[in-house]
Amino acid sequence: MANEEERTIIQMHHLQPAAGANKARTRVGRGEGSKGKTSGRGTKGTSARYQVRPGFEGGQLPLYMRLPKLRGFKNPFKTTFEVVNIAKLVEFFPAGGEVSVADLVARGLVRKNAPVKILGNGDVTVAYTLKGVKVSASAKAKIEAAGGSVEE
Fold it and tell me: Per-residue pLDDT tens for 29-57?
């Protein structure tokens, strides 16, 4: 047994990386000894700076300056009506009778919670009683000529 070499079992805490395998990263901008001052970015120019401001287009005239300034006016209190033509009214309610906003919403002609206006495109042969809707002058004339009425 004197000839046998003493065996050692390698354990996890004995392992270490090969020489030169792990290299510390270069810490730029930490004094002029190594990679200081301009930190490898050269001098001046866009690439030497951290970031350019939002909206900068490389010296081209930017979008916000190309667009017109203060053009027009948008009324925040404007009422936008859901529009239904008489032709659609005749198509969805061929028997005539009383038609309210709820009926129009149920048939999918208008969105709910929006004011409705009936326009005069089309012909009426049956009498309609319209409730809770606005009506154009031409539509009102056609509906009343067919024997109907409008209650706003």
Answer: 999 988 889 988 889 888 888 888 888 88
For the chain, what are the domain ranges? 82-150
DSSP state of 84: E
| Fold (topology level) of 82-150 | Ribosomal Protein L15; Chain: K; domain 2 (3.100.10)
Bridging pattern class, strands 134-135 and 116-119: parallel
Q: What is the DSSP string of 90-114?
A: HHH-TT-EEEEHHHHHHTTSS-TTS
DSSP characters for 9-41? ---GGG--PPTTSS-PPP-TTS-TTSS-TTTTS
Cα–Cα distances in angstroms (integers) from residue 147 to residues 112, 127, 134, in the given order: 28, 5, 18
- In this structure, are residues 107 and 89 in contact, taking their beta carbons and an 8 Å threshold? no
Helix and strand numbers, DSSP H then E, in the chain:
4, 6
